[in-house]
Amino acid sequence: MNLSRLHHAAIICSDYQRSKRFYVDVLGLIIVLEEFRAERDSHKLNLALPDGAQIELFSFPSAPARPSYPEACGLRHLAFEVVDLDVAVTSLRGKGIAVEPFRVDAATGRRFTFFADPDGLPLELYEADTKPP
Fold first, then answer.
1. What's the pLDDT band for 11 if we cut at 50, 70, 90?
2. 1-61 CATH choice from 3.40.190.120, 3.40.190.10, 3.10.180.10, 2.40.110.10
3. Coil vs helix vs strand at 37
4. In whole angstroms, how far apart are CA 58 and each of 9, 13, 55?
5. Helix (H, G, I), strand (E, B), or coil: what is residue 23?
6. Pick the CATH number of 76-133 from 3.10.180.10, 3.30.428.10, 3.40.50.2300, 3.90.650.10
């Protein structure tokens, strides 16, 4: 097997327009493809990060809520690398997004923090190894 990178992660949301605004307007992801699949009564939105990795945002009628506390088995969170954690957090807070206090990864010494999407999905910001000069 020759895995080369993560291509995409899929997220099911409870309110398509609210989540679309969050991922596009708050996080700044780029819309690649947007479609409504009438046979499934479902929206599908492909969003790209600068490195080409994508998030597929889906809506389905009556999707059950994601168990968070206690944490359920399965995907725990999505982590995004940022060049400057202070700038990223200031941007999020300026848009009304609650962000947890910074933590430090004991293995790498890099800072990180968590915040949540509109459905409470934990999202992590992980600071890149080096900041630009």
1. very high
2. 3.10.180.10
3. strand
4. 11, 6, 10
5. helix
6. 3.10.180.10
Would you tell me how many other CB atoms lie within 10 Å of the CB of residue 11? 21
Place 117 in a pLDDT band, splitting at 50, 70 and 90. Answer: very high
| DSSP letter string, 61-112 | TTPPPPPTTTTPSS---EEEEES-HHHHHHHHHHTT---PPPEE-TTT--EE
User: Do 63 and 99 contact (CB within 8 A), yes or no?
Assistant: no
